[in-house]
Amino acid sequence: MPKNIRIATRKSPLALWQARKVSELLKNIDNSINIELVKITTSGDKILDKPLYDIGGKSLFLKELEQALLNNDCDIAVHSMKDMPAELHEDLTISAILEREDSRDVLISKKHHSLADFTSTSSLGTSSVRRICNIKYEYPNIRISDMRGNIDTRINKVLDGKMDGIILAAAGVKRLGLEKYITSYMDKKIWIPAIGQGAIGIESRKNNKIINNIVGKLNHEHTKICVDAEREVSAFFEASCSTPIAANAVIDKNTIILSSMIGAIDGSEKIYYEESGPIGISKKIGFNVSSKLEQKGARKLL
Predict the structure, then answer these.
(1) pLDDT reported for residue 13
(2) Mean pLDDT throughout 198-216?
(3) Disulfide: which of 72, 276, 282, 291 matches 257 by Cβ 3.0-4.6 Å?
(4) What is the C-alpha to C-alpha distance for residues 61 and 218, in angstroms, rounded to an integer?
(5) Using CB atoms within 10 A of its CB, is residue 10 exposed (0-12), middle (13-18) or buried (19+)?
(6) Percent of the chain scored above 70 by pLDDT?
(7) Does the active-site annotation cover 54?
């Protein structure tokens, strides 16, 4: 059993919450372990005046943490799985995925109860191309404003009247104890969540067997099966932050159900496909879903 575990994390309130949650779970395994948080400011945290899809995508939240792993400046890094690329560095691995929180998107607004209530003069904040695609497809008259920053900062812009509404991941809002501000939840059948949304991943070096052994005890099997299936879709299309792509899996008894969507960034078209099968072939289900999306014309939308 290791005496010390160094956890690399971003400095945002949500990232710190996630790192502290992992710390708490590790302490539950062995309270004698000393946990150190290695707080890192990433490129994505520094550049806040441009949309992610213009400056390199969500990998900007990862590369400094992964470099710390490769440099042996930390033992594990904690991430939101929706930020993780399909392909990892050859020396790194996802050693555990925690049990998933609510994977849905939510609307936060003081003025409107749902997106259907927004008018052409209303402002709605988001920087996600998946959410932009959904908004433009379902509600083409809504004015979209680029919105980045910490969750509490974005919510305060709504509370202060600077923005009529924002779309966020339910998981982050709930984890920070801000659930009271949620106005409504998006229907997952229409508004399919981002790949990995709501799940926390722990990344480590492949060759660090001692760390991987203890961290592996935190893995939630059903969540990992679902997220791995979703990530098959991302890998198939080599998706990036500029790709309006979504996939969400759930398990019912021994069956996995994988729903997916790929859209045009201008919201002109969306393609859906859903398939189910035994959890033992979950990755194959992910490949099948990707192939069906391709057959239905997904490549031309990307």
Answers:
(1) 94
(2) 97
(3) 276
(4) 23
(5) buried
(6) 93
(7) no
